[in-house]
Design a protein that fits this description.
With 228 residues, the protein is mainly β. It has helices at residues 15-22, 45-52, 55-59, 116-119, 214-217, and strands at residues 4-9, 26-32, 39-44, 62-66, 69-80, 87-94, 101-110, 124-127, 131-136, 145-148, 157-159, 170-171, 181-186.
């Protein structure tokens, strides 16, 4: 089920109006795309803050309610304050059922613990990417792309060509290498301990120069003269 949220019409625009809006714990936003004109909206900051913590809010089709009207939208952009935990602005894109969409969805790795790389070789599995951009019709949009690691062996990698995509979904590369690496498995190299019985390094030789004898260091004491 799509994630739902409530927005409210925004009557004023401009940086000054948006600043005043934020002081009332509201977030200015906009909805665009499709045949309708861009729509100015505002949202409750706290509700939006908690919504953005959910993975589905970023990668699912959302149901937005404004007054009595409901529409399907996608999250397109969020602007945060440089150092405060505040949302400055948010953008949504209207979804049209017959038009393909492009968006990033998270990557979920499964069966890592039972893979030969981990179970037999105690290899370290590195998840190279955490999300990937896809293209599909809205009805085919998956919540995530699942990457199965059950056959991963030490020293091998999982590439884009090894990943099974849901029906109607394709990866978007933007001219980059299409053989994207999703995960790798590397063996842990341990430093070899010295073998038993191996000769230990000889101590550093002391200086060949001998210290002067104590007798030579101080002049000999004269014997007391005999009384005549």
């Amino acid at each position: 089920m799509a994630t739902e949220f409530t927005a409210f019409p925004r009557e004023v625009k401009g940086s000054s109006a948006s600043r005043r809006l934020r002081l009332t714990a509201k977030v200015p936003g906009i909805v665009y795309g499709g045949e309708a004109k861009p729509e100015l909206i505002e949202l409750d900051h706290n509700a939006l803050w908690h919504g953005l913590k959910k993975e589905d809010f970023h990668s699912s089709i959302l149901t937005m309610t404004v007054g009595s009207a409901k529409s399907q939208v996608l999250l397109r952009d969020v602007q945060y304050h440089p150092f405060k935990q505040l949302i400055q602005h948010i953008d949504f894109l209207r979804v049209e059922a017959h038009k393909p969409i492009q968006m990033k969805v998270p990557v979920h790795f499964v069966n890592q613990d039972i893979s030969p790389a981990v179970k037999l070789s105690a290899a370290i599995v590195n998840h190279v990417i955490s999300d990937v951009e896809i293209a599909c019709l809205p009805k085919d949009l998956p919540r995530f792309i699942e990457v199965d690691l059950q056959n991963l062996v030490a020293g091998a990698s999982i590439h884009a060509s090894d990943v099974t995509l849901p029906a109607g979904v394709t990866l978007v590369f933007h001219g980059r290498n299409k053989d994207v690496v999703f995960a790798t498995a590397s063996l842990v190299v341990e430093e070899a301990a010295p073998a038993e019985g191996a000769a230990t390094p000889a101590p550093v030789a002391a200086s060949k120069q001998k210290a002067p004898a104590a007798a030579a260091a101080a002049p000999a004491a004269k014997a007391p003269a005999k009384k005549k």
